[in-house]
Amino acid sequence: MGRETLEVALVRAGSAAAASGGRKRIRVNGVPRRAASLATAVRVVVFAPEEMLLIAGSPSLRRAALDRIAAGRFPAYGPAVSTYTRALQQRNGLLRAIRDETADRAQLRYWDLPFLDAGGAVVEARLRALGELGPALRAAHAEIAPDEAAAGLTLRYLTNAPQRAGESAREALERRLGETAEKEAWNGTTLVGPHRDDLAFELDGRDLAGFASRGQQRTAILAFKLAELDLLAALDGRPPLLLLDDVFSELDPDRRSHLVRRIAELPQAFVTTTTLADLDPALLAIADTWRVDPTGGTTLTGPLRASP
Fold first, then answer.
1. What was the pLDDT predicted at 256?
2. 114: cis peptide before it, omega within 30°?
3. What is the pTM of this model?
4. In the prediction, which pLDDT does 10 show?
5. Which of these, 230, 105, 126, 212, lies nearest to 169 by C-alpha position?
6. Is 43-272 assigned to CATH 3.40.50.2300?
7. Which segments of the chain belong to CATH 1.20.1050.90?
8. Collapsing DSSP states into helix, strand and coil, what is residue 34?
9. 285 neighbors 276 (Cβ within 8 angstroms)
10. Does position 18 have pLDDT exceeding 50, yes or no?
11. CB contact set of 245 (below 8 Å; sequence gap of 6+)
12. Which residues touch 112 (CB under 8 Å, ≥6 apart)?
């Protein structure tokens, strides 16, 4: 954050706020800011237990992870996603009306243009982000799991509008929109577009969701997080804040030690656990340790052990 000062205050105002525990007010350098704008002030990469769903869970989780990276890399990405989402909602509303015979197909033309323009831009940015992420992903995975380095961890973009030779992403989407027009009118919803695309984590060309152990999946997700961190750090040389919760479980001792070395190289990282004994001893040796006590109101005490 450089010289910026981030202040987050919990304010109780009125019965509604009190009932929900209050509301947050955020200021950066004393200036009120919305939470959505904090990405430019505080860049954060998070690994939590629920991240284990990233490989085998819903495609929406993988799209969201890629969208977060693309938004951090390309300033125009957020507006393109917003435009695409609005056009998609309008198209779906019209398609339902067409299915119910209360609207005409000709009305779709108005929303097809922003849908195609923004949808093509979203796909192009996602592919560009994946291209930039690829080398960092393979390097991070090889660092944590050198025994699998030869296999190579990759991310493959799975799209319902694959580009033919010479086609742009927009042109491919437009072609597929024409091919599915009858089916869309029958179903009352948009059947193609980046909102239905997916990612596959692959090791040696095989989808990790189908064959990998929990430890292999955790290693791949950690490599993804570290690659995201490296990619964002390359923007201005400032590594994002790394937050890790229950990160060492399901990792064998070798992978734990490799991960500890990686964490130790960072300017700052927060690692949380319910039991200190669960943390790698090498990490504890270089860490400041704090305890969160939830009894009688959440309090933070420490450091219990100072860094050397």
1. 87
2. no
3. 0.83
4. 43
5. 126
6. no
7. 43-272
8. coil
9. no
10. no
11. 46, 47, 48, 49, 271, 272, 273
12. 91, 177
